[in-house]
Design brief:
This protein is 29% helix and 23% strand. It is an alpha/beta fold and 265 residues long.
Amino acid sequence: MKNILVPVGSSKNAKSHLQYAVDFASATGAKLYVVQVYNVYTKAGTMIKVDHIIERESKAFLEHHVAQIEHKGVEIVTKTFKGKLVNTIDLVCKAFDIDLIILEPRTNSIKDEVYLGKTSGKIIKQTNIPALIIPEGYVFKPISSILLALKSAIIKKKEALTTLKTVKDDFNSVVNLLLVKTPFYNEGDFDVTIELKNIVTSITKSENPTTYQGVLEHYKTTNPDMLCVVRRRRGFFGKLWEKNVVLKKDFHISQFPVLVLSGLK
C-alpha cells in the first residue's frame, strides 16, 4: 500500500482518527494525504472574496491537527480543495494514486446516535476507492483476524481483492470467509475461486435475509479485528444505506474497523 487519503472534518474525533491513520500508515509503509474539501456559496453582488480566507483557515486547521499527533516517521501531506465532495474526492484519488480512504464515521459534530454521517456515507456509497471506516476513539492495533462477508464469491473485476490481500500480508492476518445465501442467491455464487481460496483460512456458509444479518449472526464466532465487505447495490449496506446516514441502532457491530472493497464484479 503506497498512498492513503484521510478526509478530515470538524468532529471532536478528528485528532484520534488522524492518529489511527498515521499508525496504520506506519504499519503498512504508506504515505498519508490529509485533506479537507470545502465549498463556497455566495449571493449575487457579494463584494468580499472569501475563497482564499476559507482555504487559508482550512489549511491552518489541518496543520494544527497534524502538529498534535505522533508522526512515527510517516510522510504526511496536507491539502485543501474547493468543490463538491464526491467529485473532488474522486479527482484527488486519481491525482495522487490513492489505494485506500480512511474515514471516520462522522466528519462533523452531529448527534451521538449517528454511526455513519452524511459526508462519510456519501463517500462510501458514491466512490469506488476501497475505504476503511474507523470507529470513534478507536486505538490502532495489529489486524490479526479479518471476517470477509460475501453473498457471492464470483470475482470478475481485476484486482478486486488487492486491498484485502495487502492488509492480510502487512499484518499477517487470518481471513475467515462468510458466505451468506440471501433471497438474491444465484447458482454458482458460492463457487470460491482459487484466488479467494488462497486468501482465506476458513469458509462458513449461512442463510439469512441479508449479508448484514448473516454477519450479525456469525461475527462473534471469529471475533475479528476487522470486517471486510463489498460495495454492492444490494450488498452489506443495501438496506441500511437507502439514505446516506446510518444510525448506531441499525448498525450493531460498530466497535471495530470496516473495510469496504470497491466490488468484485
